[in-house]
Amino acid sequence: MNELKFCYKYPHPAVTADCVIFGFDGVSIKILLIQRGIEPYKGKWAFPGGFMKIDETAEECAKRELEEETGLKNASVEQFYTFSDINRDPRERVISIAHYALVRLSEVKGGDDAASAKWYAMNDIPSLAFDHDRILRMAMNRLKERICFEPIGFDLLPEIFTMTELQNLYEAILEVKFDRRNFYNKMLKLGILTETEPRPANAPRRMPSKYRFNAEKYSELKQKGFRLEF
Amino acid sequence: MNELKFCYKYPHPAVTADCVIFGFDGVSIKILLIQRGIEPYKGKWAFPGGFMKIDETAEECAKRELEEETGLKNASVEQFYTFSDINRDPRERVISIAHYALVRLSEVKGGDDAASAKWYAMNDIPSLAFDHDRILRMAMNRLKERICFEPIGFDLLPEIFTMTELQNLYEAILEVKFDRRNFYNKMLKLGILTETEPRPANAPRRMPSKYRFNAEKYSELKQKGFRLEF
DNA sequence: ATTTTTTGCGCAAAAATCACGCAAACAATT
DNA sequence: AATTGTTTGCGTGATTTTTGCGCAAAAAAT
After folding, report:
1. pTM tops 0.90, yes or no
2. Nearest nt by C1' to B203 Cα
3. Nearest CA in chain B to A98
């Protein structure tokens, strides 16, 4: 047992892929964490992730581990940084290729595989294993940068949403406040939203218009060389 | 000899750090390449870089290899992507943590260690080893993104430069043309440039004003939460 | 000697941004 | 039932920013 049968002329680090999964409940940004069942850091919370197999890419590894540990399938993960500090892991030298993904809370069915997977609000994150607090800070910064220039926010909302929900999301991520009317106009002027229905003329005013993200329009506009610049 | 003395329970990939080094000669963006002296890809051009030691971080490795192979010291390298395709390297599974840096051409003394290091203009890049053409494309994209929001361009120019030189740099990187007067005004209005001398009133007009990047002003402004948005 | 290029200064039209007002519909409270 | 506060859509005027171009002097090129 415990044979050491993979041998090299020079020392090799182990490589893991970890996933910072963002969600949004209408009020605050949430993070999907799993509780570690084994040492080291047993009982502590950490990002889904694990060791990369020798015949998979980092992205494939991230997706596989994510599904194994949380039941979340087909998330569109994106690499954002590789952490290579010497003593990240007490067991051996481990470098971690960190990814992030934005998912709809509704798509993550609790239970099943993910007995110990749990959503935490950004302002209520427990103590994390390894250097995962540093990874989280970096992921959050990347999210803030990214959402200003790519319409990734829509991945966090239901398919159909109101302008106020969209504004709440932007305000939660960027930690700022926008004027409601200006946000409304700015968003519509971008031309990447479609009103779900022309809204009946006699509808009560209080019932807000609903929109969906128009991916075709966006890729059109992008090709013509326009930038979001939020 | 050739003992395989580092053994693990599971297979481990090898890890390298590679460096895409950008320069600017006043007209076009240049890349520093080295010619490979050994197989695989012997004779082909590649980025400086090499295998990570077990007691150094990726960034340390990138800097060390850069100095060893090109003589370039103390470059401020920044990681931008980790390449993990299965068959990147015919020898064994190798993942590469790619970095980039911006340096002044004048700071790279040819010769010495770097017998086979050479600058190539962006539009005249030879066939590259491994997947380095893909790495180059990605680095260039990252540079384009980055220079719009961080004043990194100044690392490519001499300490003291004219507005026209700065404009040429931006145009070379972003592959666009700016109106000279608008560029001039926009840059000055940012408040991150210092005129080297108040410019004598009777100076000939044709002699352009010279500027330097004011790092203090920039970090001041940045703290107050302003963005470049070029 | 003539033409072309480069630099600095600056303005006016067009566009974008910003800070609000207002009324109707609804919910919660008294 | 009346009052109060909230949410939604529509709009508007003031300010700021962007953009496109003119001009003259000095230097370089022809």
Report:
1. yes
2. D26
3. B82
